[in-house]
Amino acid sequence: MKINFEELVYLKALLEIEGLGPAKILNLISKFHSPKDVFVKGLSSLSKTELISTILSKRIISKSKRIKDVREKLERELESLNKHKFRLITYFDKEYPEILKNIYFPPILLYLNGIPEEKDYQSVAIVGTRTPTPYGKGITEKISGELSEQKVTIVSGLARGIDSIAHRTALKYYNRTISVIGSGLDKIYPPENKNLAEQISENGAVISEYPLGTNPDAQNFPRRNRIISGLSLGTLVIETRLNGGAMQTAAYALEQNREVFAVPGNLDVKQSEGTNILIQKGEAKLVKNAEDILIELDLKLKPEVGRNIPKPSVDLNMFEEKILNVLNHEPMQIDKISEASTLSTSDCLVNLLSLEFKGLVKQLPGKQFSKVF
User: Fold this and answer.
1) What's the rounded Cα separation, in Å, for the pair 152 and 363?
2) Residue 173 in contact with residue 149, Cβ under 8 Å?
3) Domain extents for the chain?
4) Is 162 exposed, middle or buried (0-12, 13-18, 19+ CB in 10 A)?
5) What is 114-296's CATH number?
6) pTM across the whole model
7) Which fold has domain 318-371?
8) In this predicted model, what pLDDT tens digit does every residue of 49-107 receive, in sequence order?
């Protein structure tokens, strides 16, 4: 579906209706085929549909009488965006990141300073405290640099501390980086990061779901965090307190079925509370470097990424070789491995455990296994 100006007017009208979130809007558009048709064709049948309540139906009908106001407001907004050289894209535009469509409550509108590219699909979010320790700063520079050398796009939130270090390191390596902010594009926060935001827009994008003029209010940032994780194959947490925003981003990543990684920290340092708990609870994979992340994401990253990571040289017995010959990068159930390798299930489990210790095989839920390399 192509969203022209007229359809955008009706889409904005839907977004202005209290209680009508992204999921309901997408369901309505799917049923009536376009935002305009929700109002035009849907007026007689909105109250009959099971997609929304009677109250929301009445609000849509009431809004249809004020479309002229919505149109005039949109004209002013687009004029302001053009003046700043910012852009507005919708969920239905081809520029909208495909990976972001696969989350709960994807933003219907995105405001952009910069241009997302297809290769940004190969991305890792790096988030953490605004007050990192020297250890946290060093680790962020190290892993951001290693990922940048592999041309993995770095996604973060432009906040002070870990976020800013991750962005700056990516730029230092002439790598792409994306910042998701919790305010309008004209209200960069913190203000000292205005120059950083401009640099990011030239080699990536600054993204917001909030219109121009929106202040960086506290309630905006949890919503922002779901986009950070939603744009990424995995989220790396480097130093955060238990109540830090990075913990929210990790929770969103888990909810979105994305990988979560964490760097362990000093038990006596408050900035390490969150990362250590994520690892202890099994919600995050402990990582020491970018190689750990690239190996874990190997099934999802394109072949050229991570290929310069050397494969370990290890001695294998004949049973391990047999098992490796039947495994690939797709998950395989233990019974099928046993059948394909002509080994008993118990022999397979013993040798799979050995291969896992050697870093060649990864165990997945449901007694499934796959190759690491």
Assistant:
1) 25
2) yes
3) 5-74, 114-296, 318-371
4) buried
5) 3.40.50.450
6) 0.77
7) Arc Repressor Mutant, subunit A (1.10.10)
8) 667 777 888 888 888 888 999 999 999 999 999 999 999 999 999 899 999 998 888 99
